[in-house]
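Hi F.,

I've been meaning to write this up properly since the lab meeting, where we talked about keeping a consistent format for the predictions we share between groups. The idea is simple: the sequence comes first, exactly as it goes in, then the structure tokens exactly as they come out, then a line or two of notes. No screenshots and no reformatting. I'm using this chain as the first example so we have something concrete to point to.
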Amino acid sequence: MTAESLFSIRNLSVEYHTRGGDVRAVDDVSFEIRRGEILGLVGESACGKSTLGKGLMRLHRVPARITGGTLLFDGRDLMSLDEDEMRMVRGGEIGMVFQDPMTSLNPVQRIIEHLTETILAHEPDTSEEQAKKRADELAEKLGIRAERLKEYPHQMSGGMRQRVMISLALALRAKLVIADEPTTSLDVIVEAKFLDLLRELRQEFGLTILLITHNIGVVAEVSDRVAVMYAAPGRNR
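Output, unedited:
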């Protein structure tokens, strides 16, 4: 790793085990994410972008598995960590914003409860009052009024739910946020506001962002550098 590198990915391969045999969805991929940058990862549908994003956090479960590669994050090899150690890295150091935030938010839990519970799970020495205060402050920075934190996820718009997911990463002081197709479900106006928000967060918090998308226009607008994935499963580069 170079001094400016936050995450160095070397020769990462991910396979899915199927009845018809193993399918290599990510094949020997290498790149690095520099501190404080927005790196755009762009590629056609089904080229393995989302599989790669999950692989960086070791989120894969059967039938998917990482079959090779090195993940050096801030000087540590994530492949050498056990599951309990990785659980603290997820969210605490690397946050992820999925295409559909509803898959990550508890539908029967108010937003403030979700934020507070997440902070306390990673920082048990923090009091509930301190956790709620931090959640309120971050929500305000992200343009979410305090009263809206009392709402359930389904009461918020797609753009607002994406802001909640980013606030989760910031609440835990994550160094890297992986945003997987975060604007796909948003209309053009909300998408533009969300991209402005990413730039502001990078500036204010020194946040490093991996933006995964098939939209080359989005990448061109906000990214400092671009990485490209292509080809069908088994032929990624």
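Notes:
Residues 5-229 form a domain with the Rossmann fold fold (CATH 3.40.50.300).
The chain has a mean pLDDT of 88.

If this format works for you, I'll send the rest the same way.

G.
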